[in-house]
Amino acid sequence: MVNENIIYGKNAVLEYLLSGKPLDSLYVVKGTQGVGQHIALAKKGGGVVKDCDVAKLNAFTGGDNARHGGIALIIPAVEYVSLDEILAVSKEKNVPPFILIADEITDPHNLGALIRTAEAAGADGLVIPKRRSAGVGATVHSVSAGAASHLKICRETNLSDVITRLKKLNIWIYGAEADGEPYYNQDFTGGVCLVIGSEGHGLRRLTKESCDAIVAIPMKGKINSLNASVCGGILMYEVVRQRK
Question: Which of 16, 104, 121, 179 supports an S-S bond with 236, CB 3.0-4.6 Å?
């Protein structure tokens, strides 16, 4: 194996799936035969099944088709938790909730940096979507400098449902976008959920419409946007500053 988070080959992947252990994504080269059980077990276990080409799988596994057999399984470097477990953190500390949502951040370096800052800022946890998002694999874990082992991370199918549930708990949802109001004009002293969008497209339309407020970081230079993890870091430490 190239790293401890990738299992490849039909037999090895099947044995892992039969064990019922946590999984992230199952990659299958289109047209690969004899993988119906693998796909069914991956879906049952909450994993995401993705089609890919041989070249991508070769890059993942550092081998050729004869070695991986057209199938590879990505397993998480950490164990994901439920949303309830994240919500329990603020209750135990007797402070207002402080949660982060990453809306389809696909760059593992960005996600890892975001996790590192979230843990340092004392956030309760991070929610990521199951699809169209980097999972917490070896790269994310490494970039987070180990913070991924300490921050509670939840993986949900529908972020809109998560936002709706948080709102019912009187947690205000703040989305980060360039057309929002300056972040320093907001009151972050109550229950807060910061939503950070993807690197290229920002927040998805439905996610943006679900937010209570859209906040922006004023840009004074010629560049009109910030890296997602930098944006998240600025907003998180404004929460820390106000609560201090």
Answer: 121
Residue by residue, DSSP assigns 65-107 as HHHHTTEEEE--SS--B-HHHHHHHHHHHTS--EEEEEES---
Write the pLDDT tens digit of every residue in 125-140. 999 998 878 878 777 8
Distance CA 122, CA 95 (A): 11
Entry pTM: 0.78
Q: Which two tokens stand for residue 119?
A: 């843990």
CA distance 37 to 42: 8
Q: What is the per-residue pLDDT across 39-67, written as a single tens digit (0 to 9) for each?
A: 999 999 888 898 988 888 888 777 766 67
Query: Can you list the alpha helix ranges (DSSP code H) found in 169-227?
Result: 205-210
Tokens of 93: 């500390």
Distances (CA, A) of 180 to 184, 212, 234: 11, 11, 15
Half-sphere exposure of 30 (CA within 13 A, CB side): 4
Across the strands, what pairs with 182? Answer: 216
